[in-house]
Structure formats: C-alpha cells, structure tokens
Amino acid sequence: MPIDLPSGVAWLRSTERGRAWLSVAPRLVDEAAEQWGLRLGVPFEAAFESIAVRATTGDGRSVVLKVHFPDRENEHEADALARWNGGGAVQLIAHDRVRHALLLERCIPGSPLTGVDPNAALDVLIGLLPRLWIGAPQPFRPLTAEVEWWLGHLEQEWEQARRPFERRLLDVALDAMPALAASQGEQVLLHQDLHGGNVLAAEREPWLAIDPKPLIGEREFAVAPIVRSFELGHTRRQTIRRLDRMTAELGLDRERARLWTIGQTVAWSVGSNFLTQHLETLDWLLDA
Ligand SMILES: Nc1ncnc2c1ncn2[C@@H]1O[C@H](COP(=O)(O)OP(=O)(O)O)[C@@H](O)[C@H]1O
Ligand SMILES: [Mg+2]
Known about the structure:
Layout: H1 16-35, E1 39-43, E2 50-56, E3 62-68, H2 77-84, E4 92-96, E5 101-105, H3 118-132, H4 143-160, H5 167-182, E6 188-191, E7 199-201, E8 207-209, E9 214-217, H6 224-227, H7 236-249, H8 254-269, H9 275-286
Antiparallel strand pairs: 1-2, 2-3, 3-5, 4-5, 6-9, 7-8
Helix pairs in contact: 4-5, 5-8, 8-9
The site of adenosine-5'-diphosphate has 21 residues, from strand 2, strand 3 and strand 5.
C-alpha cells in the first residue's frame, strides 16, 4: 500500500515542481524504507513540505523516516542535524541525498512545545538556542546570501502575489536588512524555523528541535522565528515579551533582533498560509 500524503502538502500542487514531487514522493518513501530495512507505521499529519512517517528499524528502534520536498531552505537540513549530533536536536541516523530522505531518532511522546505554558515554552527555547549556536561554516548558506536573495526576489514575488500587504512593510524590511547583514557579529549555525511546532517532547532530552532550515549568521537573527511563533501566544504583549526576554536573557542586541524579525517575517509572509498572523506581529513589532 503506498503511503498517504498528509493534507498539509496540498499547497505543493500549485507548482509544477511541487506536483512532480508529490507524484514520486510515496515511491521515494518506499525505496528509502527498503534501503534502511524499515517497517513503516503511520505518517505524521502535521507536515507541510515533507512526508514524515513513524518507522521501526530491523533491531527495533523507533525512528522517523522523513522525505522532504527539496527547496532552497531545507537543502542543508541533514547537514545541520549532523553538526548538532543530537545536542538539542534530533539525531540524524542516516541520510540519502538523492531521495532527500532522512532517518531520524523519534521523539517520544513527540508532542510539540506549543502545548505547554507560553512562559515555560520560552524557557525551553532560551535554553536550546545557545546549544544550537555552534561554529559550522560549511556547507551552509550565509545569512548575507539569503538577504541578497530576498533583495533580488521579494518585490517581484510581492507583485506577483498581488501585493498581499502594504508597500511600507516591504520597504522597512528591504531597507533594514542590507545594513544588518553588513554589520553582523560572530557567525554561528542558526535554525531559521524554530517555532513551537518544531520542538518536540522527547526522552533522551526533555525537548529536541526538528526541521531546521539552517543558515550561518549572527545570533540576533535566531530570535525571529520564535518572536513570530504565534502558537506561543498571539497578543502584542506576548510577542514583545518574547523579544524582550530572549534578547535580555541571551545578551543580544534588541534592536538588531527586532529588525531581523521584521525582515525575515516580511520575507516569509509572501505566499504564507499564516499571513494574517504575521501581519499582526509585524504591526506590533514596528513600534516596539
Ligand atoms: N524526529 C521526530 N520525532 C517525532 N516526530 C517527528 C519527528 N520529525 C518529524 N516529526 C513529526 O512530523 C511532522 C513533520 O515534520 P517536520 O520535520 O516538521 O516537517 P515539515 O518540514 O513538513 O514541517 C512534525 O510536525 C512532527 O509531528
Ligand atoms: Mg515542521
């Protein structure tokens, strides 16, 4: 029986590349399972650009087989997990670069950090971030290059998406990011998508990060996905409190962190399913 696709990947049908991947993804899962001798279980429902399936290895270990839609941001997901080597993130057990398949340690129970009290969740993230900030130059894309890419594409994407938000927001982001990129502090490995749904309850450690979209850049950038994580409390007060707590407790420059969050949130808002929430967050951050 071929594996069922999770409903969250339906958006991939809107592009030719997406459709092509959807048509081969179940086969890639089967081939990867065969190559690693896995018994496949039930797929996870909360997947948006991948198929992640509960699986068991030949020697009885509980694992996850993840086959992801190959895109720019997750190109080096496996490399980042390999660098962290289990410290604060799930362990990469094996990797197939051709099929974009990852064999991962399974988090059990695997419930997301979004289920706990927002302040306690922030304590967890403040504990995790410095463990993920390791020096690791290769093969990751520098934040500077990501900013250049955004500068080259964002306005056109925004036009093509029929201007989903006001011009002023685009201008704030496009004005702030080149100056930030050119004046960064120490370069470390960053998890560009560390929202509450990408941190799971586990046994080896209480909480482990999954699903990195890695970049190399300064620490201030790392707060962006967390400040923006509406699942951790979506009011002005809670959003600003995340920015304040993380920058104070991790010794970060608050203004740079605020501007990076605006920049990355604008860049990720075009085409996002969460545009409404992101626009509210941006509104709160503009005068914070
Ligand atoms: N190592 C893991 N242990 C337990 N559950 C996992 C693991 N990796 C992924 N999952 C589950 O699969 C879902 C999708 O995986 P994720 O890596 O977040 O993919 P996507 O890029 O599609 O968001 C997660 O939200 C989680 O529910
Ligand atoms: Mg995810």
